[in-house]
Amino acid sequence: MEIDEFLSSLPKSIVTGEAVSLPNNVVRRILKFAKLKKNDIFYHLGCGDGNAVEIAAKEFGIKKSVGIELNKAKATNARKEIHGIKNAEIVNSDIRKANISDATVLLFWFNDPEIIDAMTERFKRLKDGVRVITIWAPLGMTLPNKIDFPFFVSKKPFRRAKSIRQQIKAIYHSDCIDFTAAWLLAERYIDALEVVPDDYRRFVNMLQGMVIWINAWNMGVACEDEVPPPVQTYVGILRTFFNIDLTGMIKTQK
Question: In which band, very low, low, confident or very high, does the pLDDT at 11 lie, cut at 50, 70 and 90?
Fold first, then answer.
């Protein structure tokens, strides 16, 4: 099975991250990382069950905490969770259309390129000083202001990287990614989000680590000059034992 076939077999909401809910302690870590303050107005874009909205309002005591959720049933359930909290609200709307003009901090965790591009343009129109929290990667080609991988804070006015290599160096303190770095990045991501059951941890680490390295290779920012033996081995394991073929992803270098 080619990787595209594998991904297409999964629910779209899982692939984009829309159906993945962050555990409470992960939410607390993210909000502390962003230095949420009492005068902040926080928006969680795609808030799901609303736990981040509730935690920001109750535990951080901020001015206003808003969740925006497209799914009507999820929005209804989220409203039940924040019932009685005066500085919290849930809006049932598309994040690309909802009013976010008063935001000072936004949590934005989407992987769909079209949504990322659309929201990046919206963020550029917000007032200076606004902090955008992203997970796994900075906002577009921006150079993040704060990094606690896999969490990033980008502050407006956003600083644009001149190249992917410059962005990688700003994030990882190296202008290339080797096999070991790819494996460890996948491991850190899994640890930080706390959403992968132990029984699947090794498989997810292997799959994600290979995808990270292959993407680095395809963008010309892998440290190696040829596909290293560990990558060949793990790609073979995924193909033989899990019927997931990543070989089609690896582009021939010119």
Answer: very low
